[in-house]
């Protein structure tokens, strides 16, 4: 007791004196109320004879009034007791606060930080201030992992954000206090809203930054490996991720910065709406290649965005080709036959004429350029390659659907339609041509030139079709006979760009939640590894562990076990982040791990070492890898399991 601090004794004495004073006041009040209660009784005895003469109704009213007064007095006493108890509790709490000041301060700081991070304005400022040399934070990667787990039960993103409507916190939690139910109801309302009304302008600013073509939003300084220039590309392809400098990676970092999966999903729909607006305004999506076929080694979302940009370029080319063809026909109809102007590479505006078998000049339609060393065998006219229709843009999902269709129906697929379209365009560009001329241009291996070493060099070279082309019922010959001379721009489109993009935008809205967040998760992890590798590879002590982590991630992604190994992948990413930010701490952990696992060899040593580093020492030393884990981690045993 002597060792107790003086401040505590002083506060205890103050509290005791205060309680004693309050008790004395309560007793005084009670005594005065009792005297007032006895006064009507004395008056009643004094006037007893008079009261007996009074009317019975007056007496009843008097008693009723007295009872009401006594009830009020009792309530007053109870209220005073409650006030004293509340004040005592308050003083006791005041005395106890100094012992928990540190904890309360930490809790308050944590709450303030969470509120700050949930603010959209703070998020925008943070993302705009990202260092070009920094990798995405591990907390963002973890948030995407949380979203993957949350989205497992949703078939589409719309289902993911739709309220269930089957349960109510008030009905299910009827036994809770009023304040608890109120908190649940308010939380449910906040979850339904997702964003506050004042967040709209901030979200628009964030969208504008993300879609700004000329801005420096989330631009990362990615250093290429001089020893292996294709190393960065091959790693992202192994993970089936988006390229490190692509729009999808930026989007992954933005979405992962939101504090709840619902907010992440709501922002995704805002992005899809912006993509739709870009298509309507014929604007390219930033950080997505232009006019390139989809990269089937990247994630599906990146492939879809590639198709959108490619369709924009095709639309522009289609309009230009149509205008050029109309101008050529108009000029030809006016009688201007400038046949000398026929060498315009890639420009169908030129008026090109060819002689048919009767010697009549016929206008070439849809000619693109002259083919070297090829002439019409009968007339000697130059052969021109036509402007052909672009083939369909096949993404990973469309290829799978096409294969299933061919196997189920036995159809030839789109190849037959493409061949017929090319034949019609070739006939329009080369009046008087035959199937032999088309085969020489389209499929040279199916044409064999005759030996002219001993013949007359002045005669045009002759040859013959291959055996398969000469067979009866050959598909090429059947199509050639039905083909009409028609420029590609006037043909029925083989690939409808508007329909394709509309289908992609709908697919982006209806994509399964877990599938979307998984693609964003893997793409962001790939960016971190690509940025760290040039820095860590120069450190002999850390490079070995880094490449072990890299091989581990590749094995998990190639094995299709991302969803099952989310926690492990997050721990791996944290380890890589620590290598970059706190290399000394990682080196100390490595040394401790080597000492702890010095008696273990082979596969178990490898697995235990990674488990120690990724998950921590405690609770993992007795764990043996399961057969599934070993299979998932054995694609490259010579590299992955070697020390």
UniProtKB/TrEMBL annotation:
GO biological process, alphabetically ordered: positive regulation of autophagosome assembly
InterPro entries xrefs: Rab3GAP1 (IPR045700), Rab3GAP1_conserved (IPR026147)
GO molecular function annotation: GTPase activator activity
Chain positions covered by the region annotation Disordered: 19-48, 444-464
Pfam annotation, one family: Rab3-GTPase_cat
Residue intervals of the Rab3GAP catalytic subunit conserved domain: 364-509
Compositionally biased tracts (Basic and acidic residues): 22-41
Entries under PANTHER family matching the protein: RAB3 GTPASE-ACTIVATING PROTEIN CATALYTIC SUBUNIT
Protein name (Swiss-Prot/TrEMBL): Rab3GAP catalytic subunit conserved domain-containing protein
Organism (species): Brassica campestris (Field mustard)
